[in-house]
Structure formats: structure tokens, C-alpha cells
Amino acid sequence: QAVATELEGAMAANRIAMQFQPQFCCASGAVVGAEALVRWSHPQRGLIAGDELFRIALRADLARAMSDHVIAQALMQARDWEGGLHLSLNITAADLAAPDFPDAVAAALCASGFASERLTLEITEQALVHDLDGSAAQLTKLVDMGIRIALDDFGAGFCNFRYLKKLPLHFLKLDRSMVEGIADDRRDLEVLRGIVALAGALDLAVIAEGIESEAQRNAVVREGCFAWQGFLGGKPMPPEDFARL
Ligand code: G
Ligand code: G
Ligand code: MN
Ligand code: NA
Q1: What is the reported pTM?
Q2: In 10 A of CB 3, how many CB atoms?
Q3: Domain total for the chain?
Q4: What distance in angstroms lies between residue 113's CA and the mean position of ligand 4's atoms?
């Protein structure tokens, strides 16, 4: 109860805020959008990252409320971006399993005026394992609204290829561990090549995450990834800083 009260207080006091990490087009080098990453600035504990915040929210039975709060906030901030930039939002297993989730997203889009075609939702394998058919049905509802879907952290978990066959996906987001060695390890590079080829055959665009060096960026550009994201291009930053960029 204490935790729930604290979380509700933090939402009301705007201590739960979004940061945005830029994503760059491999072909042009231009910023094409940003991934929203939530931060809880806790009066005693300092900044708490998204994964921990959602673990706490889940225990307090506030995971859905927190997600709705975060989605609304990100959409409101992204609607003023110039140039039709895209917004990428992480969602949880609880979101995907909630029957009213597609309607909640539709309402948030409507309230913000942000076009659904500019929104990508990122899901991870953990969000899918419980009920693949149910997940596919939920994702199809979102895709029918014009939203795009990214499979996040690809390569970090079990990489169940059934997900690629059964789900309406648009993007594969390569986990940081998949790009770490590509500039200096032959095997890492060949794994990347194989995945990019597979993604291409399935009409999926590849986004490389965790790019920290020019050599890594050059490799993902050369190998045909669609976009990249990482500390080389910018860390997650407050909305004012992203708007300036
Ligand atoms: O940048 P950061 O350390 O916050 O990210 C840690 C993890 O928290 C990431 O795996 C990310 O998917 C998750 N996360 C960050 N922001 C959000 C968010 O707004 N919603 C959800 N569901 N997860 C998030
Ligand atoms: O949603 P996801 O699990 O992909 O969350 C992205 C996480 O990766 C966030 O915690 C973000 O801060 C972090 N991140 C983004 N770019 C980089 C990078 O270049 N290097 C490292 N080490 N972490 C990154
Ligand atoms: Mn993500
Ligand atoms: Na990731």
C-alpha cells in the first residue's frame, strides 16, 4: 500500500518523466525518431530506470496505470516534434495481455493528436511467451490502427523464430550484445549478416541498438540495417534537449 501511494504521488507530482534517445537513419544519417525511456526521479533514491520502475509498479498492482501514464506523457511531448519524427514506446507483458490495451492506446493517440502512423510499440520476448496467439491478436488490433511493432532486445533471449512467423512485426531491434563485437569479430559480423538477410526476406527493418563507436555504426550501415541508436548518437535526454537536437 505504501508503495502504491508513493507511486501515485510520483505520477501526480510529475516525478515520473520521459527521456528520449535519438534514432538515426542508416541511409541518410538523419534523426528519424526517438525511443522514449521513463525515469523516476525519487526524492531519496535518485533516478530510477524503467525496468525497475515497472517491477515496482507490477508489485503494487499499478503496472497498467503506470503504462497509461507514461504513454500519455510521451505522446504529448512527441506531438510537437518537427518533421514527422517517429516515437518508439516500450510496452510490458501486462499491457499486451490487457483486453482494453488497444482501446487505451487509441484514446491516448486521440487525446494527443499524434498520428498512429508515427508510433512504434516495442515488445520483448518475455511479453510474448505466455500466450502467443493472444499476443498476436492484440498486436493485430494495434497494427490495424496504423501502429508499427518492433521486437525489442532481439538476440538477447531465446530468439524463438516462431515469433517471427506468427506476429505482425515491422522492426527487429538488435540487442546491444548483437552489435558489441561486429567491428572486430568475424563471427559477430556473420551473425549480424544472417539476421539482416532473414529480416529482409521477412520484410522486417533492422534497428541496431547500443552503438557506441564509429566502427560499429559503419558496420551496421554497411550491412544494411535501417536505423541505429546508441550512446554514439546520444544518450536518453530530457524532451527539451531532444527538441533542440
Ligand atoms: O534506459 P533504461 O535503463 O531506463 O531502460 C531499461 C529498461 O526499462 C529497458 O529495457 C526498457 O525496455 C525499460 N523501459 C524504459 N522505459 C520504459 C517505458 O516507458 N515503458 C516500459 N514498459 N518499459 C520501459
Ligand atoms: O528497451 P531497451 O531494453 O532496449 O532499453 C534500452 C536500454 O539501453 C536503456 O537502458 C538505454 O539507456 C540503454 N542504452 C541505449 N544506448 C546504449 C548504448 O549505446 N550503450 C549502452 N551500454 N546502453 C545503451
Ligand atoms: Mn526498447
Ligand atoms: Na533493447
Answers
A1: 0.96
A2: 13
A3: 1
A4: 28
- One digit per residue, the tens of pLDDT, for the chain of length 245 reads 788 899 999 999 999 999 999 999 999 999 999 999 999 999 899 999 999 999 999 999 999 999 999 999 999 999 989 888 999 999 999 999 999 999 999 999 999 999 999 999 999 988 887 788 999 999 999 999 999 999 999 988 777 788 898 999 999 999 999 999 999 999 999 999 999 999 999 999 999 999 999 999 999 999 999 999 999 999 999 999 999 88
141 C-beta neighbours (distance < 10 Å), count: 15
Exposure string of 208-220, with b = 16+ CB inside 10 Å and e = fewer, is bbbbebeebbebb
CATH code for the domain of 228: 3.20.20.450
Q: Cβ(236) to ligand 1 under 6 A?
A: yes
Nearest residue (by CA) to ligand 2, atom 18, is: 210
Report how far ligand 1's centroid is from the alpha carbon of 204 (Å). Answer: 23
Ligand 2 atom closest to the Cα of residue 175 is: 4
CA pair distance 185, 74, nearest whole angstrom: 38
Is the distance from the beta carbon of residue 70 to the nearest atom of ligand 1 less than 6 Å? yes
Atom of ligand 1 nearest to the CA of 95: 22
Cα–Cα distance for residue pair 19/206, rounded to 1 Å: 23
Domain residue limits at 78: 2-244
